[in-house]
């Protein structure tokens, strides 16, 4: 990102940071984060001043399933264990309508969750009115979370955001699930939302670092009017991870953007707690780069690697094909289907059968 792309003086801007390690990071850990690990991570982040922490299965409420994998504890167990130990941080959850239900949202609230990202595909906001209304009735901080936002243009995304606002969302998020966007893409979408939303409705940005643009994209979002930024310490998240939060906090401090977090405490959390927890180093390898390059849902990374082993087709090729087909969250069964078709086309299927 060149300086000329930052049009405003961001000094003195206030931004709310939201850590995703204990939700998006569940994808990278194949849902295997223990309650004890969650408590350790969350208390350290609370101490570093992170105001919001998301805690659930990677696919959110209702995520425990054969399709999405089983976590080591229930969402309620995780939420209660973490929220009961927080001094200042609020616990949030993810809810994809259809996967998670309003009953599950109520039970997450009872367990201590006080904020929710209600997530839909970027053209399907109209699947979320009941869930956003339910969150508002519970008194929760409520976000409409438009996933795979690169697949809708700024005008279309603004219309979807306006719908979510009309359902009661306090904040509308542009979610770069594929880590595909460049700063100009983010800026155009935030501006389009800012033009149509009420002044009191906040705008958020959730980035993935597949093209190494998480920080530049988040700064572009702030420049265009976003006030909430998701990231995850040490980037623990799907694909090449989320915007690395400790790095982002350091950049904000350099730019005079106020986050209220202690940068060095966050770097200690990254180094001493998160990195040792990783099963693989979350980084931009050839497969996670392919996600960003081809516009593929970051959550598809590990299932595509498994399909690659099963069918003998390189994961990168599978991911590029999934991007070409514009597959979205919820279409996970197409990963194996695509790999199998490619194996057949390449004459590899006999080897699989034998
Ligand atoms: C279920 C996904 O992981 C939600 C998300 O974080 C994204 O789309 O990005
Ligand atoms: Mn994500």
Automatic annotation (TrEMBL):
Q: Which residues does the annotation list for site: Transition state stabilizer?
A: 23
Annotated positions binding substrate: 23-24, 177, 206, 297
Q: List the SUPFAM superfamilies.
A: Aldolase, post-HMGL domain-like
Q: Where is the active site?
A: 27 (proton acceptor)
Residues covered by the Pyruvate carboxyltransferase domain: 15-267
- EC top class, as a word: lyase
Residues annotated for Mn(2+) binding in this entry: 24, 206, 208
> What reaction does this enzyme carry out catalytically?
(S)-4-hydroxy-2-oxopentanoate = acetaldehyde + pyruvate
Q: Which domain of life is it from?
A: Bacteria
One Pfam family cited in the UniProt record for this chain: DmpG_comm
As recorded in UniProt, its EC number(s) are: 4.1.3.39
Assigned protein family: Belongs to the 4-hydroxy-2-oxovalerate aldolase family.
What name does UniProt use for this protein? 4-hydroxy-2-oxovalerate aldolase
- The species this protein belongs to is Marinobacter pelagius
């Amino acid at each position: 990102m060149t300086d000329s792309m930052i049009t405003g003086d961001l000094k003195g801007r206030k931004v709310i940071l939201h850590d995703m390690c204990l939700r998006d990071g569940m994808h990278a850990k194949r849902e295997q984060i223990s309650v004890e690990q969650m408590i350790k991570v969350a208390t350290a982040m609370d101490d570093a001043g992170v105001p919001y922490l998301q805690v659930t299965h990677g696919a959110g409420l209702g995520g425990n399933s054969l399709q999405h994998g089983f976590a080591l504890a229930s969402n309620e167990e995780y939420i209660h264990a973490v929220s009961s130990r927080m001094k200042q941080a609020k616990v949030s959850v993810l809810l994809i309508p259809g996967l998670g239900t309003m009953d599950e949202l109520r039970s997450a609230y009872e367990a201590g969750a006080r904020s929710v990202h209600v997530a839909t595909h970027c053209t399907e906001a109209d699947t979320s009115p009941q869930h956003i209304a339910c969150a508002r009735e519970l008194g929760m901080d409520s976000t409409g979370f438009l996933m795979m936002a690169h697949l809708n243009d700024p005008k279309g995304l603004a219309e979807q955001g306006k719908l979510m606002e009309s359902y009661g969302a306090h904040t509308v998020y542009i979610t770069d699930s594929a880590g595909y966007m460049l700063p100009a893409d983010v800026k155009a979408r935030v501006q389009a939302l800012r033009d149509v939303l009420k002044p009191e409705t906040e705008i958020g940005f959730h980035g993935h670092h597949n093209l190494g643009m998480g920080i530049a994209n988040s700064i572009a979002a702030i420049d265009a009017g976003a006030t909430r930024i998701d990231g995850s310490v040490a980037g623990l998240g799907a694909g090449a991870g989320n915007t690395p939060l400790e790095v982002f906090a350091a950049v904000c401090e350099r730019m005079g953007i106020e986050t209220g977090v202690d940068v060095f405490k966050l770097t200690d959390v990254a180094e001493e707690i998160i990195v040792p927890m990783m099963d693989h180093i979350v980084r931009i390898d050839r497969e996670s780069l392919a996600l960003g390059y081809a516009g593929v849902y970051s959550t598809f990374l590990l299932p595509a690697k498994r399909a690659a082993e099963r069918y003998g087709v390189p994961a990168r090729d599978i991911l590029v094909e999934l991007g070409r087909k514009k597959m979205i969250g919820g279409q996970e069964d197409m990963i194996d289907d695509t790999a199998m078709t490619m194996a057949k086309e390449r004459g590899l299927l006999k080897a699989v059968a034998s």
